[in-house]
Amino acid sequence: MNVSEQHKEAFREEAYELLAELESALLELEENPDDQEMVGRTFRAMHTIKGSGSMFGFTDIAEFTHDVETVFDKVRGGLMSVNRELIDSTLKSCDLIRAMLEGGGSVDEAEKNRLRGIFSALSRSGSEQGTASASPASAAQTAGRSSSEKTYRIRFKPCREIYLTGTDPVLLLNELRELGECRVVAHLDEIPALEDMDPERCYTYWDCILTTSRDENAIRDIFIFVEEDSELRIDMIDESGGLLDEPAQKKLGEILVERGELTPEDMARVLQGKKRFGELLVESGLANPSQVEAALAEQQQVREVHQRRQNSDVASSIRVPSDKLDILVNLVGELVTVQARLSQTAAMKNDSHLTLIAEEVERLTSELRDSTLNIRMMPFGSTFGKFKRLVRDLSNDLGKEVEMITEGANTELDKTVIERLNDPLVHIIRNSIDHGIEAPEARQAAGKPRQGTVRLTAEHSGDCVFITIQDDGAGLDKDAIRAKAVEKRLIPESAELTDKELFGLIFAPGFSTAKKITGVSGRGVGMDVVKQAIEALRGAIEITSRKGEGTTITIRLPLTLAIIESLLVKIGNDRYVLPLSFVEECIVMTRKEMEESHGKDLANVRGHMVPYIPLRSRFELTGDAPDIQQVVITHIDGERIGLLVDTVIGEHQTVIKSLGRAYRDVHGISGATILGDGTVALILDIPQLVKWG
Amino acid sequence: MNHSFQSQGNSGVLSLSGSLTIENIAQLKSAVSEALQASDHVTLDLSGVESADICSLQLFCSAHRTGARSGKIVELARAGEGFEASVGEAGFGRHVGCASGNSCDCLWIDRSGEKAGVAP
Questions:
Q1: Of A521, A531, A520, A568, which is closest to residue A674 (Cα–Cα)?
Q2: Is A75 in the B-facing interface, judged by CB distances under 8 Å?
Q3: How far does B28 lie from chain A, in Å, by closest CA?
Q4: What is the rounded distance in angstroms from the CA atom of residue A49 to the CA atom of residue A17?
Q5: Contact A631/A612 with Cβ under 8 angstroms?
Q6: What is the pTM of this model?
């Protein structure tokens, strides 16, 4: 790849990220059309795509994006408002830009011309005033913000006779605006009644909040000719070094919500009824509106500057191809293995000096492992935008009103897990909207709000992440599931099933209760594939549902795929690894107890009979089992199932190695690991073992 | 600057157009004062105003307060883009009106305000 190709590739990667950000900003904007921050984000993303596009030779993208950018600049300037059509067209533009990035003739020219027509008409409509010419300057301001920016509060109180000296204060304010981002609030409290007013005198004075990379002298220069007769005070209120940053303190409500003592809904309700502090101050006469206004402007500007700084801090990361990371993770895996050998050797030699070194290496390796795995972690929220878009498009197609609520954007998961989770989640969300959420009229008739809700949440719990997809739709129809299962001969007609077992049938291959096949779902190739995909990630999936109230699907996933906590067991001369997340307990099984169960593979666990799989015979191992064996009791889909092994060795940090394509059809084995003494142990895939056992 | 005043009963509409500058501020002051004397409810129609300087903006503000003191209402019904831009440039936009009279009818509430107060 030559340099220019490399740059193009870098641009593509950046543009894909920007498009993802753009989509999430647009969807937010659809919810809150007045959210200036989202308008700003949309504009900046378009502006960057345009600018970088033309720099790296993607002129078609630059040209196309230009009109979209102009339109959002108008929105930003308050000359145009955000509506559904605009969001629609912009989202479609995102798709088109993506197609242009991919190249290879996948661009729909007719769609491109249609969208260009829409945006060029929009960009010409409304007021022509100033905005188009303003955009490059403001964008340059945005792009060129340096880290040495400071925020100043400037109080400018000109002498009453300023007009007589031939100076218009507005011109000075405009000069100030040219130095950077500036909010201006006029104080009007000294304006007298008409009869006392000399209209040629200036009774107004100003507070300006300016964020600029220029120094105080540059500000003073603007007022140089009027400074003598005017009151001019310049205070620095914030600087990028963070010296003046106040520690972020939580508000009372936030703390109460965090502690679970107040629900977010209750807090919102109380806040709604509450007057704003500024209004209270004005009402009580302690401050006049101008003072409140100026303070608000200051607060908002400083907040925005901080936000921007935070964003740029996040952006000051380096981009590394993921295969380099994979190599690093592999190497760390090797290191963990070698370290285990070192510890084992040190223990055997009984050499305190060597043990000391081994312990030090163990500590360092463990830190290195954690931080390496941490690099691969991505916030789950990075996928929310895509799912929101899916919900929006699907509900439009199906004529349903659906809102998607997402929670837990900061929950981190291994990058590979997030990627491989995409298709299953898409399928589940599609099902929720297609089968779960009812049509608006049906919802109303059932006394529900017209708009349905799909809630996607992610939360940590121990070494697992729980992902929940919850809808408030019609819920699962138990009778229909049962009828279908009988029809498909999955269960006998007389079968008595618990709700859980009944819902579990949905995951059976070829199961679909949809009366007609839509483009969205209902082809019957679905939930079984979803379950397989989740299990391939060493996860589990569960459904709960109440008729008329909705369905909840919970997915439990391990944090990472590279290293797991496990239980090492021995059968004959071989050792095996069981993921600890499935293990509940271990019990002893004597030959006598086995004989008493008359050949039935059942273990008595404190009075409860638990079936077990004798792994020795399951793996067709030769040799005799010892007199005392152990049963590892595992927990799968709510059932307890044991695995009979010779001995349990103990807990083990397992670095997972893939077995390669040759062994992909071997059921019950998900991978292998190298132990401290250099031997290989197979990692058991417990759900598969149980399924095939 | 051009101005006209049309009254009906106790209310009247003061229509202004052109550029409101310090050169015609005296004329504007008398037009506003006369309108306020002639009616209890003065509606300002500023749709034809191309620009307004600080002098005229503070004059409107003063008229509103003067009216409020004697129970009269001065309200801004229509304003063109030129006037809005001037309000924004001068930083007159407000979220909360002043304590004189009814703060809800403050001329500057949500008028370009914050958005226009920010550099373009």
A1: A568
A2: no
A3: 9
A4: 10
A5: yes
A6: 0.48
Which residues, other chains included, contact A29 with Cβ-Cβ below 8 Å and sequence gap of 6+?
A35, A38, A39, A42, A82, A87
Picking from A127, A129, A194, the nearest residue to B63 by CB comes out as: A194
Nearest CA in chain A to B85: A129
Two tokens at A499? 């709700």
pLDDT, one tens digit per residue, over A399-423 is: 899 999 988 888 888 888 888 888 8
Residue B91 to residue A186, Cβ atoms within 8 A: yes
pLDDT (0 to 100) of residue A78 = 76
- Which tokens belong to A541? 């999936």
Determine, for residues B69 and A195 on separate chains, whether the beta-carbon distance falls below 8 Å.
no
Strand partners, A636: A639
Per-residue pLDDT tens over the stretch A184-196: 989 988 899 999 9
Q: Which residue has the higher pLDDT, B81 or B96?
A: B81
The mean pLDDT value of chain B amounts to 83
ipTM: 0.91
pLDDT confidence bin for A158, thresholds 50/70/90: very high
The predicted model gives A57-83 an average pLDDT of: 82
| C-alpha span between A186 and A645 (Å, rounded) | 81
> Is the distance from CB of B7 to CB of B34 less than 8 angstroms?
no
Which of B:58-117 have CB within 8 Å of A? 58-59, 61-63, 65-66, 69, 81, 85-86, 89-92, 94-99, 103, 106, 108, 112, 114-117
> Does the distance separating the beta carbons of B99 and A288 come in below 8 Å?
yes
Q: How many CB atoms lie within 10 A of CB A659?
A: 16
Which has more pLDDT, A290 or A134? A290
Torsion of CA B34, B36, B42, B45, to 10 degrees: 40
Where helices occur in A244-288 by DSSP H, the ranges are 252-258, 264-273, 277-283
Would you call A166 an interface residue with chain B, using a CB distance cutoff of 8 Å? no
B84 φ, ψ (degrees, to nearest 5): -60, -40
Contact A206 B29 (CB under 8 A): no
A189 contact residues in B (CB cutoff 8 A): 98
Measure the CA–CA gap between A347 and A339, rounded to whole angstroms: 12
* Chain B residues with beta carbon closer than 8 angstroms to that of A36: 115
For A367-395, write each residue's pLDDT tens digit.
898 888 888 888 888 888 888 888 888 88
Classify A595 as helix, strand or coil.
Answer: helix
CB pairs under 8 A between A and B: 127
pLDDT at A345: 86
Which of A271-275, A383-387, B79-83, B89-93 has the weakest average pLDDT?
A: A271-275
Q: Do B58 and A282 touch (CB under 8 A)?
A: no
Q: How far is B8 from chain A (nearest CA, A)?
A: 23
Could you give the CA distance from residue A688 to residue A682 in angstroms, rounded to a whole number? 14
Distance from CA of B89 to the nearest CA of A (A): 7
- Would the CB atoms of B53 and A186 count as touching at under 8 Å? no
A573 pLDDT exceeds 70? yes
DSSP reduced 3-state for A466:
strand
Domain boundaries, chain B: 2-117
Query: Cβ B22–A200 below 8 Å, yes or no?
Result: yes
Q: Which domains, and CATH codes, for chain A?
A: 3-142 (1.20.120.160), 150-245+276-313 (3.30.70), 322-376 (1.10.287), 379-558 (3.30.565.10), 563-692 (2.30.30.40)
Count CB atoms within 10 A of the CB of residue A606.
Answer: 7
Q: What does the longest C-alpha to C-alpha distance in chain A come to? A: 113
CB contact A278 to B (< 8 Å)? yes
Residues in chain B: 120
Q: Which residues does A247 contact at the CB level (< 8 Å), separation at least 6?
A: none
| A285 contacts in chain B (CB < 8 Å) | 99
Domain B2-117 is found in CATH 3.30.750.24: yes
